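CHAIN AND CONFORMATION:

***
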Amino acid sequence: MNKQPLHRNDASQQVHVPADPSRVQATALIIIAFAVVLFLLVQARFLLISLATAIVLFSLTSDAINFIARQRIGPLRIPNWLASVAALALIAAALLTLTSIILAQINTVLVTTLSYTERAPSAIAALFSFLGEDIETAVFASIRRVEVSSYLSTLAGQAGNLMSGTVLIILFVGFLFAERVWFSTKLVNFFGDEVQADRVGKIVGSIIRRVNHYLLVKTLVSVVTGAMVYVVAVLFGLDLAIALGVLTFILNYIPNVGSIVATGLVALVAHVQLGDSSTTLAVFLIIGAIQFVNGSVIDPMLMGRALRLSSFGIIISLAFWGAVWGIPGMFLSVPIMVALMIVCSEVPALRPVAILLSREGLPEPKT
């Protein structure tokens, strides 16, 4: 008697594997932790922005303080506390001076903007005349409905917080200077292992060196770019020449987007004030050429391999920190991303993140 082969239903052979409760719980905890951290970042943004800025300024000057403290005046060596006090005084003077300049230029921009309120809508709408009269009329009507005074009031209120933030940053930097001499001792006591503390110290040192190099190059390029924009604005007789130069200097710290916004603002001011399309085009092309040469040629040449960050990663970081902390977050996005990439490159489980953040898949080499 021939036995017929048994045909089994494949569906009946499938075994349902229950989800691992521990994995689900871990995922839920990660999501909750991210939501809590994000909530705290938004709610305490004023304090955290001031602290992050103070840390950046502290890192910029810590090496200079160590150099000064090693110098001798005859048989005497400059004490560390004196070098720290001198550095804090210089930082405070520089920050207060820069804040005063920015506030003065903001006041100038507010006054000038109010004087341009009447003619700005027609001048901006004229830029769209090539699309037809209907489009130009629609743009004019849309701009006329914008409540300029409310935006100016908001800007004035934000500018008022700038001085408070500056004072808080100075206080933070002062306390960081007071604690810096015990930083190495705290690391050893915290980890309980000199080897691990030394490794963490090297990571922190690598972050400081990379961020310092980036900020110094950015400052140099931004100063040159702002000065060149000021000269161009003066040559074309623009009323806001100083304000445009200062604004260009500040916006150039925002990667990729800042130079584009600065170029557009200069061209817009030229068009509203002069009302001549050919002159506006000339200003736009000149400022665009300055930004391209300084930002795409000189900046990368001076930066070298100190900033091996992915361009797409920079945009993502810019968008995230801009959404969380606003404009200050855009300024701090690159230093934060540099620190994140270096830390991830030193943690084996997070090294794939560092590879994604790096430009060529080559993050900071292991120390």
Summary: The chain has a mean pLDDT of 80.
